[in-house]
Amino acid sequence: MNVLIDYPLTVMNSLKNEIKSMAPLASDYAEDPARHFKRRRKIGFVDLITFLIVIGNSNTEIELTKYFDFNVNAIPRGSAFIQQRSKLKLDALRYLLKAFNDKFPLTLYRNKYNLIAVDGCEFNIYRNADDPETYYEPSGKTTLGYNMIHTISLFDVISKRYLDIEFQPSRMKNEFQAYCNLVDRYESDVQPIFIADRGFASYNTFAHTIEAKRKFLIRAKDLNVKRFLNLNELPDTIDQTVTLILTRSQNKKKRLQSDKSEHYRHICKNVSFDFIDDKRTEYELSFRVVRFDLGNGNFENIVTNLSDDEFSAEDLKDIYWLRWKIETSFRDLKHTIGTENFHSKSVKFVSQEILARMILFNFSTIIISHTVTEKHGKKHAHQVNFSMAMKHCVEYLRSSGKIDGLEILINKYTLPIREGRKYPRIHRFRPPVSFCFKFI
After folding, report:
1. 8 A C-beta contact, residue 101 and residue 116
2. By CB neighbour count within 10 A (0-12 exposed, 13-18 middle, 19+ buried), where does 332 fall?
3. What's the rounded Cα separation, in Å, for the pair 285 and 242?
4. Which residues are registered as beta bridge partners of 122?
5. What is the pLDDT of residue 404?
6. How far is CA 72 from the centre of its chain?
7. What pLDDT score does 401 carry?
8. Averaged over 213-222, what is the pLDDT?
9. Are 160 and 365 a contacting pair, CB within 8 Å?
10. I need a surface site. Which of 153, 180, 227, 406 has the fewest CB within 10 A?
């Protein structure tokens, strides 16, 4: 077993030092820079950020008591915590997520790319019938009605780390726009390949990725591909590059390239496209369309700007298959480290907790990725029990490193790797955990 004895301590200190480095610039992350975080409080800027990351599933008062080590004179009241967190911009946690990630480089695909999945996830929050943007009326799911926020995340599927997130009220969600926002603000010297499901296939998402000089691989519906290729029926296999000329006008006399009429596609005024305006009336868009047989009578369509010289259709299939890791990460984010156990009804505060939990998730996966399991004559190769390992890492951070031999403890709990197993996806409605039933 390859154990780096001090590695968990190194990771923990990197996170804590990054938080401390933000403290002198606390006004940059304050809602009111002139007043907020200027006075000394029982829960200052550093403790506020740290507490948001390590807060457990009990109610706020109990968690504050544990965080301040049962010191009666040091423990702030829950109301003081609420006042402090209300001063904090969401950008503070978004910055910390990126800064902490930068301390530990992501694992590369083919020594050249970062594979980044983009997907949405919904969180049920406490019922508030007065919020029309998140509230859903009583239905077959619940007799009381419920509130929900929608998130769209960037997730590195090889390093298993969250990179960024967009928050939207569930009734106002726009995954196309969220994708564009995430791609536009993504910063890295390494070329990413953004991998997304068919809910993200649109001219605008393709164009935003290309304009940002990034790579994408997005699944598309048959209906979309038929329109791209101007076909009534699709053949079993396709691998061709398509060049389209997009325009808002249906007037053929206004076309700048009348000899290429078969390449023109009209975008109606109700559909977002950010690269056509009064000065630029047409936009030329090139991408590759690949269609392949899954072997069970079903077919998949992939739209990408990856070249066929470097990536075959089989390569694209393998890359898209890796996208599923973001789906399993949502399960661990929600349930393994308890993101769904929110400590507020406020959408802003819930967003803070989701971002803080993503930082905690990354802290755990950075440590887990350095724990190497050994086979020792077993029938199957083994992997770390991710759920158990993550809980150990969380407790390590909450206890400020008081767990000795963390990597040995992580390696104690492993699971066999059985390739090729498939399970049906089960969709279930899960109401938020009530404030009245939190005791852990």
Report:
1. no
2. middle
3. 8
4. 150
5. 85
6. 38
7. 86
8. 97
9. yes
10. 227
